[in-house]
């Protein structure tokens, strides 16, 4: 049995529901609820998996936030994705024997490990759930393409605005946004590693966003004050998220 109670309101289940192209059956819901997730807690900046690992399990983010990253030989880091509760950041390890990336906790984070064999058993019994998990992996690819465009062709101001729009929507879909506000414990260094700019530049852009009345980011909490202006500045189009919205 699962070590973690997975109700319909749990971020992991909400994530699956938000991307499935069909309504989950009672049997599929029950199978998800019994998925054997084994909990573990990681401190901020602690690696969960590292490049060249050969894992026999995946993990779901339960609370907190994680970052997939790559590093150069001289230690410079590039964050290539953030993962919020409900995400399974390393699902591709089910078929890729050796990881070509690392994933670390950005803040104190709780995850649930699930053995590859347990997932394979789930997909044999419920093939449609296998389709949903692979759809999630394809969406991860869409996010990577958008991040490449964002960092490669947008200026620093729309680049940061776009990141905040994306994270706000992804957190909202798993029930973690209230009154246009959510927990987002990203430091200026974290933002710099994701956006390819210095922490000094991050501080300058955050000030512009605050002074423009678009957002505030304080104490690890992001509040969007003007979604229309923020999304316009970001040239944000949520199509790449390929989400099927569910009621909050």
Question: What are the key terms here?
Answer:
248 residues; alpha+beta; Jelly Rolls; four-stranded antiparallel β-sheet; three-stranded antiparallel β-sheet; 8 helices; 10 strands; 41% helix
Number of strands: 10
Query: For the CA atoms, what is the radius of gyration?
Result: 18 Å
Helical content class: 40-55%
By CATH reckoning, the class of the largest domain would read Mainly Beta
**What's the order of the H and E elements?**
HHEEEEEEEHHHEHHEEH
Description:
The chain has 248 residues and is an alpha+beta fold. It has 8 helices and 10 strands. The protein folds into 2 domains: 11-145, Jelly Rolls (Sandwich); 155-241, Winged helix-like DNA-binding domain superfamily/Winged helix DNA-binding domain (Arc Repressor Mutant, subunit A, Orthogonal Bundle), CATH 1.10.10.10. Helix content is 41%, strand content 20%. A hairpin with a 5-residue loop joins strand 4 (66-71) and strand 5. The two termini are 28 Å apart. The relative contact order is 0.15. The model has no long low-confidence stretch (mean pLDDT 94).
């Amino acid at each position: 049995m699962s070590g973690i109670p997975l109700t319909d309101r749990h971020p992991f289940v909400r994530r699956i529901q938000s991307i499935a192209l069909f309504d989950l059956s009672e049997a599929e819901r029950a199978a998800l609820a019994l998925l054997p997730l084994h909990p573990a807690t990681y401190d901020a900046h602690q690696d969960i998996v590292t490049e060249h690992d050969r894992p026999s399990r995946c993990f779901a983010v339960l609370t907190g936030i994680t970052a997939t990253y790559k590093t150069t030989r001289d230690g410079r880091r590039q964050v290539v994705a953030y993962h919020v509760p409900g995400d399974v950041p390393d699902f591709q390890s089910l078929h890729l024997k050796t990881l070509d990336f690392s994933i670390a906790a950005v803040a104190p984070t709780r995850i649930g490990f699930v053995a590859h064999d347990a997932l394979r058993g789930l997909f044999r019994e419920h093939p449609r759930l296998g389709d949903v998990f692979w759809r999630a992996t394809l969406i991860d690819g869409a996010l990577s393409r958008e991040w490449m465009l964002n960092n490669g062709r947008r200026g620093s101001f729309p680049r940061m605005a776009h990141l905040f729009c994306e994270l706000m929507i992804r957190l909202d879909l798993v029930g973690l946004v209230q009154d246009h506000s959510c927990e987002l414990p990203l430091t200026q260094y974290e933002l710099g590693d994701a956006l390819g700019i210095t922490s000094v530049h991050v501080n300058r852009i955050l000030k512009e966003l605050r002074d423009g009345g678009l957002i505030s980011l304080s104490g690890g909490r992001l509040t969007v004050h003007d979604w229309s202006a923020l999304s316009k500045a970001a040239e944000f189009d949520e199509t790449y998220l390929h989400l099927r919205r569910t009621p909050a």
